[in-house]
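Researcher: Checking consistency across runs. Here is Peptidase M23 family protein again:
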Amino acid sequence: MGEAIRSKELQKVEMERQMTALKKSLEKNRNESLAQEKVLTNYRKSLDRLQKQRSFLQKRVFDALLQDFLFSQALKGQNLASSNDVILQVAFENLHQNTLSKMSQLSQEEKELNAQALKVKSSIQKISSVIDEQKTREVTLKSLQTEQNKLILSMQKDYAIYNQRLTLLEKERQNLNALLKRLNIIKQNRENEKRVSLKKSSQALEVKQVASSYQNINTTSYNGPKTIAPLNDYEVVQKFGPYIDPVYNLKIFSESITLVSKTPNALVRNVLDGKIVFAKEINMLKKVVIIEHKNGIRTIYSQLDKIAPTIKSGMRIQKGYVLGRIEQRLGFEVTMKEKHINPLELIARN
């Protein structure tokens, strides 16, 4: 779960980065966008004016052509019988030439109007594209804000569950340490405990100061022969030794290992010949069995769901003897002469 929370934290940071960049871009372009909207309005007015001018120009062209056509029709079939007819013919020729000249001029004006209209349309398209980009940024920002709010709510729930688990683990550790001290299995020196300062919320600070202080645990190495594992088919989900909490980035020391059985209701077996010194249910730890072996070695089995009915404190048992059963998880811890050793150094891996 810690890795999942860490992943969400990174996702949140990335969202904040994107949102900051979008806000800066929106702020930077806001005034420019307003100015461009005004320019766009003016361009649209210009385009409307040009379209009206072109319509008026087209009407003038039509009128000139119609006038020329009517004069030509009027003169068709007439004989040049009088001087007035000749004058009329000359007048028509002059009018026709004027019409052609006017048509050429009007055609040039129409080309210029069309060119201006195309230029204005291109400008409108460019400005509209810029404005659309600005609006897209605004929509994207709102979408990111909505996603971030959902992510924050999800993370708040995750943090609450995670902190509860840390508190539970710390209480389990405290209860087990109290038992081991009572049985003179360990002697803890807490004078060198180090509290790690947190830059988190007050609730997280309280939880982590309780659950994640790093202790200088007395440890030693085991170089003797390997023995059997307490479970037949398992996976190590928590290793022995220091590790970094993925959520709060704190150094934590795990005195035990946690094994998860790959089959439910699995048998838990004694790993070495020895004498049972404790076999009871302990608050927060379910059922616990502690066995004393030669060379000052003691093995601690916690989180058992059932203890075998034959198990009694004080009895001697052999390696492989069934201690009980677990549904899934087993805590396994080993000490040698009041110092912790890595349980994986003692057992042969499956």
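Researcher: Does this match what you'd expect to see?
Model: One thing to look at in this run: The first helix runs from residue 2 to 75.
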